[in-house]
Amino acid sequence: MKRKLLMLFCLLFSGAAMMAQTVYQWKTASSAGYTYKYVTNDPTKSRFYTLKNGLTVVLSENTKEPSIQYRMAVRAGSNTDPRTATGLAHYLEHLLFKGTDKFGTMDYAKEKPLLDKISVLYEKYHATTDPAKRKQIYAEIDKTSGEASNYSIANEYDKMMKSIGGQITNAHTWYEETVYEEDFPSNATDKFLALQAERFRAPVFRIFHTELEAVYEEKNRGLDNDSWKISEKLNALLYPTHNYGQQTTIGTIEHLKNPSLVEIRKFYDKYYVPNNMALVLSGDFKADEMIKKVDEHFSFMQNKPVVAYAPAPEKPLTKIQTADIYGPSAEVIRIGYRGYAENTRQSMLLDLIGSILSNDKAGLLDINLNKKQKVLSSAAGYQQMKDYGTFILLAQPKQGQTLEQVRQLLLEQIALLKKGQFDESLIKATVANSKLTLLKSFDKNDFRAEAITNEFIMNRGTKWDKSLGNPDAMAKVTKKEVVDFANQFFKDNYVVILKHKGEDKSIQKVEKPAITAVKTNTNETSDFTKNLLAESSKPIEARFLDYIKDLNFGKAGIADVVTVQNKENSIFSLSYRFDMGAWNNKMAPYAARYLTYLSTDKYTAEEISKQFYNIACSYSFTVSNDVTTVTISGLQENFDQAVNLVEHIFANCKPNEAALTELKSSILKSRENNKLNKAAILSGLMSYAQYGPQNPTNFALSNEEVKQMTSAQLLDIIHHLKDYKHSINYYGPQSLDVFAKNIEKAHALPAAFTEAPAAQKFSYTNTAENQVFFANYDMVQSEIRWVRNSTKYDASEAAKISLFNSYFGGGMGSIVFQTIRESKALAYSTFAFYSTPDKNTKDYTMIAYVGSQADKMTDAVGAMNELLNVLPESDKNFESSKYSTLNALETSRVTNDDIIAHYYADKRLGLDHDSRIDEYKGLKPLTFADIKTFHQDKVANKAYNYCIVASDKKVKAEDMQKFGKLNTLTLEQIFGY
Hints:
Helices cover about 45% and strands about 20% of the residues. It is built from 38 helices and 25 strands.
């Protein structure tokens, strides 16, 4: 399940400070027989209800699209785990997807005695230390679990959500919270609430030992994640008393090996009570109607006293603590300071200081370290929890630089802050840029739901007025206050984590237990589900784009112009789009990077960054394989200033040989780091498998060519970019005519466009026999990808592909997930899909994935191959997949600048209309026979390329050779340098 980093909500609302002083006050109102509280001038218009049983309900109406975001938040997480059973809250999160005595089972009366026996066996297992006896008990657990699975229905919850049109089913556990989230169509509200109420009425902890194995896999993935290890060590030293540092969300290996279903049930009964929970809804509904429905469904919950986690205060840190972490990834340094409780003035100041130091444009780290290339990269920020916050500085060393040298550079920026050597305008600029973030976020239901949920977790929503008012407080902060606070806060009281490249000898893998696959009974349906789905729902009318009506087409000089008028706020987004990229010129991506370090005849590079930050605008120059884009965005009031500045930069930037020297060094260092990144290695293996030795990943300048690169070559690309054919795209308040006239003046074009250099062509490989492409990497797990090139793009296949992907390998209710994770417990993460190319000249690709323990690799590969060759048939799964796919199209609304992006995506596919129209029409008549035929024609009994990243100490060559011809690739072969 997903995990998240909680952000301080006041930062996103700090844009309001640019307006007149706004009064945020709690008010009480009554409507439809219910009393609620609200905050005046709240942009989310949230209503805070408290039901009679103590359940907090927060409703935020937003009718932009016919869908609703849901959160059920519980104020209990890893902080409240018993010290003797860490990871328990996270276990429970997983088990809340397993059903109740009414769903997830075919016959609970017969299932219950077996589940009770399993619970008793786990208590016995928990109390036993003798390895032989533990093995014997586990064998009995495995046997009894198999018997119990004769009655259980795996993933019936997920199937129901899919059947009512749910698009996102997930949950996460963190320090002080467990949150369950859904995104469902507004016409399914009654069904949805009935399902959620039943889910929390009396959860049954079934299919436990395979789910526990999935958590083991999640733990092992963490052992392979150096960033997780850094965070855990940093927190342990910053918080020697508080559970922030003493307990991890996923728990210790020892506790993972000794779970107790009895303790998990006690935890549920203790914390999953209405006075400790909040139900949050944001989307298309009427609050007066919705609160009645919520009350009706959740009034069964009973209020119980809850003792909140109340740790002893941490003692002040009085010294510098340093720790070393080892792992295969690149070197990095992280410095952490212990901060303050949420919604305190100190935390607000630390949030502000985070932006003064690092805002991607004009912060002290941005200007003094990143812009001057004194490090490979650096950043700073404040992470807020409930009781404390953590202020973090981090950086990666450049070529030939030690971590200790990087530490000194970071601390020098803190010293400058303490001396007041920063521009006071940074404070106002931070507020202005946050305003832009806020304007972009208001319409998003997920943003509203997350913000409200965070507010409840932090303080039960009682300080919503203060959170909204924080911007006004931030705008009043003076430079003197920042400096005084910085001198008081930043002392020799921090923790330094030095991440070195090397073997981590402390890793203790969670060993694989002997598990017999359990039955999933995918074709079975409980009476509860039958009754729920039998209820009719009012259809939602699909709305697709009409590019002729929804877009405005014009000209500015010789360039085509495409616009969408923004009639809702003052945001604009402008782009110059070129149909050429790195495949046309290998140097183009480096020209884009070089530009960020260049000055002009009027401005230094540092002044340029500061100007953009001060006017709350951004610009980017991005080069992909076959598209180059220059994008400018911000507030319309600063449109002219931003556009003219970008035009000035491209026309007048001048060489900086010192910057180029550093850039070359950074490129070479980044390439070294890529070779230490398992995700990059796996991606490179896939590219090699798809295209052969000459492929998009290794189509790059050699290291020697990088060293020989000149400013003249790069500047030639920059100065002459607009001489090449491109379109001009605008989303903003101006009409087409007004915009076209303005941009024609600002963006001078030649009389005729220059023809772009010919693009490099890549040939797809013909996968005639199974092959294995292996790269060695020091890791606990093995990462396996199946890759097979298929046929050329065909628009008529869109409906079949969408439905096949939903049924076969997309989401927790899919065949792949149910078989490999739920039944056989072979992986935490697994999926499979038939990938549609982004251009009509490219091939489809069949891709599958399993990330498993190395000692499960052979079993995992066998399980996936079986599914690739034989498609299991499940009428219920097919019906829910079809409904979900149709509903996703019916409820989707493409708006704002996404209309332009959608237009170009379809254009690349050779379509002159919204591709979803054909997909929607094609879906309705499809049957399982169509999907089965598709699977047989495109997927089954084919040769595949197996791309494997794993440790050669943990996987055997002879095992991989059973999959196909083994090709062990060097990093130079993969990356081309």
